[in-house]
Amino acid sequence: MSAAASPARDWWRELAPVVAAFPVAGRLAAAAPYGNGHINETYVLGCDVAGAPRRYVLQKINHRIFKNVPALMDNIRRVCDHLGAKSSRAMRLVSTQRDEICHQDAAGNWWRLYDFIEAAHTVDQVMGEAQAREAALAFGRFQAQLADIPGARLHETIPDFHHTRQRFENLRAARAADVRGRAAEVRDELAFAFAREADTDVLLGLLARGEVRERITHNDTKINNVMLDDATGRGVAVIDLDTVMPGLALYDFGEMVRTAASSTAEDDPDSSRMHVRLPFFRALVAGYLEGAGDALNAVERAHLGFAGKMMTYENGIRFLTDYLQGDTYYRIKHPHHNLERCRAQFALVRSIEQNLDAMARLVAEIHGAP
Ligand code: ADP
Ligand code: GN1
Ligand code: MG
Hints:
With 370 residues, this protein is of the alpha+beta class. Helix content is 42%, strand content 14%. The two termini are 39 Å apart. The structure holds adenosine-5'-diphosphate (ADP), 2-acetamido-2-deoxy-1-O-phosphono-alpha-D-glucopyranose and magnesium ion (MG). 2-acetamido-2-deoxy-1-O-phosphono-alpha-D-glucopyranose binds at residues 37-39, 65, 220, 222, 225, 240, 242-243, 266, 315.
């Protein structure tokens, strides 16, 4: 996992006061930015426990995006407790010195600490079909394991997170406001998005008619949100639990198609390199169906390919909206980053559209005709 390069900053000094709020073992020896997430700030802490190394993951929660952090952390605590009882390598929260699940600093920022899951890694791009299958198996199992979480319905940490119609209306509003004067530059992308407006209601319609049901889902099943064992490559833990909340299995599967059946990075500046890889799609279906057990019904199975298109489309319109609004949501590395992300997503949408029949045949082959 590459760390965001910031050689000039003394992370140890900056983070030490926050770290002091947590009962970390031994002596803090090192601290540095970590990972490639777009939302939170993630750091790895290295501690020296009488000569033995011990690592933690420290995160500053993006409270501009997650507006109710106590509710979010209540979800995560419940999910960790539930999964921890079923697996020895699940995400484990470390409570603060005051025995709270997160720490708010003097500036109002929220911080949480996890044990570092050792001997495992994440990838930003899938390396092969076996890896895609393992990731899908882990996400499918994750969903199956959460099916019996006790207590009240989990909080919606971001309301309407996968309400694609609402995402579309946000794009329409951003186009109308055009606060950065960018709408003319993205005329083609807007036309592409608007030509598919009717699709935004399909999954919501299935839910409204009771053809698919709500489950506890992860909602951000991109490939770098699952940790794979260094030695065996098996999925060991699903991470990035901020969006675990009620949702559709199709959201989770679709997001996997977007990130693990795609031929290139989500932000590849050359969108002609982007297409769906059918053998990887096949591997995802096999892994997910195995992991989720018999949880998926025939309607869900019949929409696995379409879900990949929809989650890719949804991400594309979210990137486009953020570009129009002046890049206020996602972390960007250069001024056209969100536009390049959008173009790559739309290229993938087009490719999935051309392959929907082939994808349906693969699903039927694996599971029997829906
Ligand atoms: P974001 O919400 O910004 O995507 P994540 O929670 O996904 O943040 O964390 C970013 C990266 O940090 C992950 O992709 C993973 O590589 C690493 N990471 C997160 N949690 C752990 C953990 N408990 N153990 C090891 N690595 C982790
Ligand atoms: C964000 O946090 P991260 O990088 O795993 C986003 C997802 C998008 C993804 C696109 C809370 O995920 O919804 O699909 O970027 N998370 C949030 O790469 O908005
Ligand atoms: Mg992440």
